[in-house]
Amino acid sequence: MITFEDVKNNIEVKALVEGSQKQLNALGYTEHSVRHVTMVANRAAEVLETLGYPEERIELAKIAGYMHDIGNCVNRVDHAHTGAILAYQILKGMGMDSTKRTEIMMAIGNHDEQTGTAVSDISAALILADKSDVHRSRVVNKNISTFDKHDKVNYAVTNSEFKISKEERKVALNLTIDTKISPVLDYFEIFMDRTMMSKHAAKYLGIWFELIINDTKLL
After folding, report:
1. pTM
2. Looking at the chain, which terminus has fewer C-beta neighbours within 10 angstroms, N or C?
3. What share of the chain is helix, strand, coil (3-state, %, to 5)?
């Protein structure tokens, strides 16, 4: 079986992750580099592991998490779809079984809130992991005076905790937002689609999605 470590060390995957960040830097987007994809990979795996899914599904979720943003190397527009096709071809070249690489392709192709939705356990775990990465460390632009709304909202998040409980059947995103930098309302203006996508992804897994901002439960 092709493992997560095999994928992470693959020269093509490395080049695409680096290229994706290079292009997004030029476009002024937040960070989508090794830090982000590693976090998403680990969180996606944590979701399924905590809920008691088989090791094979956990490993596939981790691989999907690491590869989910490589389509940004082609273009930000439709990056989920191009990334899914790229991942399928790379994994095929690595010798991964067709059924497994199809599962990964489906998850990557459905991770963007504009066009996707949870279509499998792997897909749902990837969505929850990806949409939970909100934090000031993602802001590439260091000039606060030129921040756009995405920069302000991410920079305002001084602490972000992602917790999943099998006993309580819920996954919680607990954020601390500095309202002097950005009001909480701006978070919902930008991230409402992502929040609803996370809610539906949790429902697919038979759990509840909970959003807490500044110690107030909002979902």
Report:
1. 0.96
2. N
3. 60, 10, 30
